Amino acid sequence: MVSFDVERVLPWPAQALYELVADVDSYAQFMPGWSSARILRRDAGSAEVEQRVHLLGHDWHFRSRAEFDPPRRVAIRAGAPFRVFDLRWDFEPLSASVTRVRGALQAELGEPLLDELARHALPQLLQRTMLAFEQRAAQRIAPST
């Protein structure tokens, strides 16, 4: 199993950063490896999501469940092809315009060769994902004055 987390202190409000991560339908526009992501069904506080991601030399198509706790957390859990997939984004306001963002990932594919590849690739993907969110924030969120 892969367990990895990444943390950044970013110069934007927690609510605005939360909204970027919660905007699942736009992932393919800026996230590394995502070819599509769309909400199939939304309930109070959660959504069923269909995603296509190019990772480890494969195109992965899977469904996940996203749970929303604005503006503090987005948690994403997926089934097949993963044995375990749990990605959690936490947003901790340090001031009105500064937020600590933490992404924590636990994943297991269930095949030894793919698990070994994932052990190396998924931490890099999480780092690139955090960078993509940071770049998206710089483009989309007005600077605080």
Please tell me about this protein's structure.
- There is one protein chain.
- β4 and β5 form a beta hairpin.
- This protein has helices spanning 14-22, 27-30, 112-140; strands at residues 2-10, 34-43, 46-55, 58-69, 73-78, 84-93, 99-108.
- It has one domain (2-140): Alpha-D-Glucose-1,6-Bisphosphate, Chain A, domain 4 (2-Layer Sandwich).
- It has a seven-stranded antiparallel β-sheet with strand order 1-7-6-5-4-3-2.
- It is globular, with a radius of gyration of 15 Å.
- The chain contains three helices and seven strands, in the order βααββββββα.
Query: Over all CA atoms, what is the radius of gyration?
Result: 15 Å
Structural class: alpha+beta
- The percent range for helix content is 25-40%
What is the averaged pLDDT score?
A: 90
> How many runs of DSSP E, i.e. beta strands?
7
Q: How many helix segments?
A: 3
CATH architecture: 2-Layer Sandwich
The topology string of helices and strands comes to EHHEEEEEEH
What is the CATH topology descriptor?
Answer: Alpha-D-Glucose-1,6-Bisphosphate, Chain A, domain 4
Strand order of the largest sheet: 1-7-6-5-4-3-2
**Shape descriptor:** globular
Largest sheet: 7 strands, antiparallel
Quaternary organisation of the protein chains: single chain
What distance separates the N and C termini?
43 Å
Uncertain regions: pLDDT < 50 for 5+ in a row? Answer: none
CATH superfamily caption: START domain
> What fraction strand?
over 45%
Q: Identify the CATH class.
A: Alpha Beta
Please tell me the total number of domains: 1
